[in-house]
Amino acid sequence: MSGESLPADTFGAVSLEGVGANSASAAATQVPSETGVTGPIIRDVDEAGLQELVELSQTLPVVIDFWADWCQPCKQLTPILEDVIRELDGRVVLAKIDTEANQQLSQMFGVQSIPTVVALIGGRPVPLFQGAQPKDQIVAVFNELLKVAANAGLTGRMVDVPAGPKTNPLHEAALGAEDAGDLEGAIEQWAKVLAQAPKDQVAKESIARLQLAKRVREDSDGSELSLADAAFVEGNVEAAFDTLLDVIARSKGSDDAAFEAARERLLEMFTVLGVDPRVKAARARLSSLLF
């Protein structure tokens, strides 16, 4: 990007008609200099939040980061974007949109690859860049963005008020059962969530966690599997993994039931922990035992 202006045309297939978008030039006559607003300067946004972004972009520039959990370049880029946004002290807002969960928004903005970063200025989408970028280049892009926003009179500042945790409506019944100590009811409710949203990682992790807790509560028989469960719940993750991997190593080819029971519990623990270096190490050892 060169010069002191950004392209004013739409990005890909973007159409914000009916969402209340106005032109940047119109916004310049409506927004007083240094307008102050409050809210999170970094936020996760879904389709329901698009209207708020469009309205907010009448006061200050909004940057949208399109990402997905499986995208490694996204994981490199997003922390850099967040750092730059914090350094700008409320002069730009960052909205993060998960493309897997918000496919309609991705199509609306014509996103063909991720990460893709777009700005909203006065309700109008402006392409910034695609792919992971070094911090110095991102800073340069944002400086240009601020110049364009200033020329349009969009010089508001966001006083950062971090957003509180949002509860997915699908999760409410399951979380209520957990709060009441009803493990079986919670597992049943989380299973219903998965039936409606098969990719819901929170539901998957919760089911694994609650099944493990239920076993520790009800089936502590002193076996190696029970000892592994207890160790895991107490935080001795490596000890739990070692116990189950030892069972898998001993029973492979000789005791299919013990082998499968230990393997299933190990995978369940992997699910509970999610991304964790201890899981990576244990998975490597498990693969060496299986193949």
List the helices and strands and how they pair.
Blueprint: H1 24-30, E1 36-39, E2 42-44, H2 50-56, E3 62-67, H3 72-87, E4 93-98, H4 103-108, E5 116-121, E6 124-130, H5 135-151, E7 157-160, H6 172-179, H7 183-196, H8 201-218, H9 224-233, H10 237-251, H11 256-273, H12 277-290
Helix pairs in contact: 6-7, 7-8, 8-9, 8-11, 9-10, 10-11, 10-12
Please explain how this structure is put together.
The model is unreliable at 1-35 (pLDDT under 50). Helix 8 (201-218) crosses helix 11 (256-273) and helix 10 (237-251) packs antiparallel against helix 11. A hairpin with a 2-residue loop joins strand 5 and strand 6 (124-130). The protein is 52% helix and 12% strand. The protein is of the alpha/beta class.
Uncertain segments of ≥5 residues (pLDDT<50)?
1-35
Separation, N- and C-terminal Cα atoms: 51 Å
Overall pLDDT level = 82
Q: What is the approximate shape?
A: elongated
In the sheet with the most strands, the strands line up as 2-4-3-5-6
Order of helices and strands: HEEHEHEHEEHEHHHHHHH
How many H/I helical runs? 12
The radius of gyration computed from the alpha-carbon positions, rounded to a whole number of angstroms, is 24 Å
Largest sheet: 5 strands, mixed
Structural class: alpha/beta
Strand tally? 7
